[in-house]
Amino acid sequence: MIIIRDANIEQDAHPICKMLQALAYEESVRSFVRPEALIEQTLRGTPRLKVAVAEAKEHGAHKVVGVAIAYRGFDVLSATPGLHLSDIYVRPEYRKGGLARRLIAHIVQMNPNDPCEWMSWTMLSENKVARGFYQHMGATHLDVDFMAFGASDLTALIRNTEQHQQTYAEE
Which one of 61, 66, 109, 129 is most buried, by most CB atoms within 10 A? Predict the structure, then answer.
């Protein structure tokens, strides 16, 4: 039997990080997630993370076999609150049993006094299995380009902006 529950982040942080590292490996990227950072962001971060886990009983012990992580968002066009699904991962041997669907549903219902009207997420374009899974659940594919700044890019942006402002001020 597998249960879906809110993560006890201090207890579950290490197995969650191992799964996020496995997800990164499957996507051929490097993961820098640390249990301490996950705990801090979940308990005190802005926005705070919502974390749900799937837990199975294996060999008499309870083991985390899936995780979903989301955070609050706000869509200015519709003026509605929602969630951004940051990551979802189910160990390969537990896939195709509805756990991902259950994890997503749990995340959406975690705080009934703070409802959400939408959920968004990103996925790798070449991940056809994920695309099929989400479309089978009823999700709509939006043709958008995902852009991002990394830490060094943000530093360069700020530095360059300050230099441009100084140049315009001198003219």
Answer: 66
Can you list the domains of the chain with their CATH numbers? 2-142 (3.40.630.30)
> Alpha carbon 75 to chain centroid distance?
17
pLDDT tens-digit readout, 43-89: 887 778 899 999 998 888 899 999 999 999 898 988 989 999 999 99
Do the Cβ atoms of 42 and 48 come closer than 8 Å?
yes
pLDDT value at 126 more than 70: yes
Neighbour tally for 105: CB within 10 Å: 14
Do 65 and 97 form a contact (C-beta atoms < 8 A)?
A: no
Strands 80-90 and 119-121, sheet pairing: parallel
> Which residues 6+ apart lie within 8 Å of 125 measured at CB?
none
The whole model's pTM is what?
A: 0.80
The CA dihedral of 127, 56, 86, 132, to the nearest 10 degrees, is 30
Report the distance separating Cα 87 and Cα 132, nearest Å: 17
Distance CA 57, CA 62 (A): 4
Tokens of 137: 């659940």
Q: How many CB atoms lie within 10 A of CB 15?
A: 17
Q: pLDDT digit string (tens) for 136-147?
A: 888 887 877 777
